[in-house]
């Protein structure tokens, strides 16, 4: 789906499909430079990170096994509840493993700070984070993020995996959602 297919619902396209592709290639080069040749597990966070993971892993040159978790802190709205629930856990034993969490967005930071602590408690050797988007003004907790695509303003965004009430995930760009859609 393209921006013109849901134009009235969006206020601005922040990043086009081409810009996202170029950014993913940059992130992949940085990850390869640090990790290629090591046994690193990519952990994708469902469902938002599906697109990032699908494109990032194909842009990587090394071998990177992957696993998935589903956690939820947003319910169906635009505000984080701060309460994180595991909806689907990893299949992989993390003890002694280097882990790279792949995420679409860091908003309040509550999901990832909880998730990183959770994975560290499973005796992972290291847990780093790669996130395509981050909202610095929305941060409710400080997180050390090794790879970030873009810092964005504190507005609700959709597309490229990011949803509002399960819609817009299949938009090929990233755009701000018009307030009339969720108010
Ligand atoms: O920094 P935070 O404020 O915690 O927000 C970030 C989290 O919110 C979104 O997930 P969501 O719970 O909406 O689930 P989804 O990935 O299935 O869309 C997103 O994918 C992150 O996991
Ligand atoms: O801006 C956002 N858009 C979609 N999902 C999200 N989850 C946290 N922040 C966002």
UniProtKB/TrEMBL annotation:
The keyword Metal-binding applies. One of its GO terms (molecular function) is magnesium ion binding. It catalyses: GMP + diphosphate = guanine + 5-phospho-alpha-D-ribose 1-diphosphate; IMP + diphosphate = hypoxanthine + 5-phospho-alpha-D-ribose 1-diphosphate. Pathway: Purine metabolism; IMP biosynthesis via salvage pathway; IMP from hypoxanthine: step 1/1; Purine metabolism; GMP biosynthesis via salvage pathway; GMP from guanine: step 1/1. Its EC number is 2.4.2.8. GO terms for cellular component: cytosol. Keywords: Cytoplasm, Glycosyltransferase, Magnesium, Metal-binding, Nucleotide-binding, Purine salvage, Transferase. GO terms for biological process: GMP salvage; guanine salvage; hypoxanthine metabolic process; IMP salvage; purine ribonucleoside salvage. It is found in: Cytoplasm. Pfam families: Pribosyltran. Its cofactor is Mg(2+). SUPFAM superfamilies: PRTase-like (SSF53271). Residues 18-164 form the Phosphoribosyltransferase domain. The keyword RNA-binding does not apply. Belongs to the purine/pyrimidine phosphoribosyltransferase family. This is Hypoxanthine phosphoribosyltransferase. It comes from Kocuria flava.
